[in-house]
Write a structure and sequence with these properties.
Structural class: alpha/beta
CATH class of the largest domain: Alpha Beta
Number of domains: 2
Distance between the termini: 36 Å
CATH topology of the largest domain: Rossmann fold
Largest sheet: 5 strands, parallel
Strand content: 15-25%
Oligomer: single chain
Shape: globular
Number of strands: 13
Helix content: 40-55%
CATH superfamily of the largest domain: P-loop containing nucleotide triphosphate hydrolases
Order of helices and strands: HHEHEEHEEEHHEEEHEHEHHHEHHEHH
Number of helices: 15
CATH architecture of the largest domain: 3-Layer(aba) Sandwich
Strand order of the largest sheet: 3-6-9-1-10
Radius of gyration: 22 Å
């Protein structure tokens, strides 16, 4: 078998397995296809996902369903104002050993899992929220000078309610930047709501099947990173990020007018990796401009900060970003050659 046919076979197998996971999730989740695709993209890239939406839209149900479909350890952390960092990462306790001596023993917290549901994450204090920073970036937990490595794959799915702000603490920018995607969960349509009623008020009990385990997920994560990203497409991703930096070389008029801060390099990394997943789902082993455009909003909407003028004019982050996406050309004549030092 030639290398080209082997690659195409892997692409087709990925599509088949991805669609199997998607279809199992759909047994429980009605509609919200874009949200499900976004969550699965984060999974196969190896990143974390923030779901924002009003109560009762199925955010928590989606995460629980995903944990049923994937053969991974699952823990749920309900964030509240009185939650402490030790309640998340664990703590050292004094225990009595077999020989009667008292020694410190580390009791692992609920973060020691593979799928972690951080429910209503913005209800905890900044001190508690900071306990998630190391785990989300490094996949480790450090307690009393000892570093513990989490099992892989490790995946944080956090939810927050954008409506009720009383008793909440906005996530710090450093933590927001660690989420691969921010997905806005909207209301169901008429037909979808009717299906939800039929499934939930007539005694039906649909249980999805487990279809994928940790080693297979890691296998597909490695495949995603091998997808070809051409220089011109990579430069487009770079310019999309630089276009969010006010008063810089690639800033557009809308950038200077409405943005206070632009995206970090994680925005470019996110678009590159997420675009590779979209390419595989279209049966390609190379990223297109359209792949980048499809992942642009969820990858960038939580990485830029609006200025006072945008807030005064009731501009949303999505509106500003979409204008940048519309006005920035896909190709330019000068494409720098990437150098490795």
């Amino acid at each position: 078998m030639s290398e080209e046919s082997s690659v195409q076979q892997q692409v087709e197998e990925f599509k088949q397995r991805y669609n199997k996971v998607f279809s199992e999730v759909q047994k429980v989740i009605v509609g919200h296809d874009d949200i499900v695709h976004g969550v699965l993209t984060c999974l196969f890239v190896g990143g974390h996902c923030l779901l924002e939406g009003a109560p009762g839209l199925g955010k928590t149900l989606l995460v629980r369903t995903l944990s049923q479909v994937l053969d991974l350890d699952f823990n749920r952390i309900q964030f509240t104002p009185d939650l402490m960092p030790a309640d998340i990462v664990g703590t050292n306790l004094i225990v009595e050993s077999d020989d009667g001596k008292r020694v410190f023993e580390f009791q692992k917290g609920p973060i020691f899992t593979q799928i972690c549901l951080a429910d209503e994450i913005n209800r905890a204090t900044p001190k508690t929220q900071s306990a998630m920073l190391e785990t989300m970036q490094e996949g480790t937990v450090t307690v009393a000078g000892h570093c513990y490595v989490l099992d892989q794959p490790f995946f944080v799915l956090a939810t927050q309610n954008p409506i009720e702000q009383e008793g909440t603490y906005p996530l710090p920018e450093a933590q927001m930047d660690r989420f691969l995607f921010k997905l806005n969960v909207g209301y169901s349509k008429r037909a979808q709501l009717s299906t939800i009623l039929s499934r939930t008020t007539r005694g039906e009990n649909v249980q999805p099947e487990k279809v994928m385990d940790g080693p297979e997920i890691q296998k597909w994560q490695r495949l995603v990173r091998k997808v070809v990203l051409a220089d011109n497409v990579q430069d487009y991703i770079v310019r999309l990020v630089l276009a969010t930096h006010p008063e810089e070389e690639f800033a557009l008029p809308v950038t200077n007018q409405y943005l206070q801060w632009g995206s970090s390099p994680r925005g470019a990394q996110t678009m590159a990796l997420a675009s590779k997943v979209r390419a595989l789902l279209d049966g390609r082993y190379n990223v297109s401009f359209q792949d980048v455009r499809r992942v642009y909003l969820p990858a960038m909407r939580h990485r830029v900060i609006l200025n006072f003028e945008a807030q005064a004019e009731a501009k949303t982050t999505d509106q500003v970003l979409l204008e940048i996406l519309e006005k920035l050309p896909e190709t330019v004549s000068d494409i720098p050659v990437a150098s490795v030092s």
